[in-house]
Design a protein that fits this description.
40% of the residues lie in helices and 0% in strands. The chain is mainly α.
């Protein structure tokens, strides 16, 4: 892993609400990405929320990346944008059924006499 100027968090970062089994076991993050999130996630979250102020140019650039995610340059910035997209974005749901439902009248014909007596 390359040397970074980001501060380590005071404690390891976990998101047990969205990723209860851990980042790597979710299948969305690699082991290296999980390591970056757990080491720097608390600092990144603090910078994003405004609780922490940037102390160097790399942290200042991260603040700019939050406004324009396409300008992410470092691995940490890209991993954080991926985390934000997966944790706060809409969850995709895949189904085996198609979107278009067939018309019920085409599939069913009432050739049998009615069992209800009419008065």
């Amino acid at each position: 892993m390359s040397e970074t100027l980001f501060r380590h968090g005071k404690k390891r970062f976990y998101d047990t609400k969205k990723f209860p089994r851990g980042f790597a076991k979710s299948g969305d993050f690699t082991l290296a990405e999980e390591e970056l999130l757990t080491l720097y996630g608390e600092t990144l979250l603090g910078l994003e929320s405004g609780e922490l102020q940037p102390e160097n140019a790399e942290e200042q650039h991260f603040i700019a990346v939050l406004a324009d995610p396409d300008s992410a340059e470092t691995k940490i910035e890209r991993v954080w944008m991926k985390y934000v997209r997966l944790a706060r974005g809409r969850k995709r749901f895949h189904t085996l059924n198609g979107r278009n439902k067939p018309d019920a009248a085409d599939d069913y014909t009432d050739d049998e006499p009615s069992l209800v007596e009419e008065d």
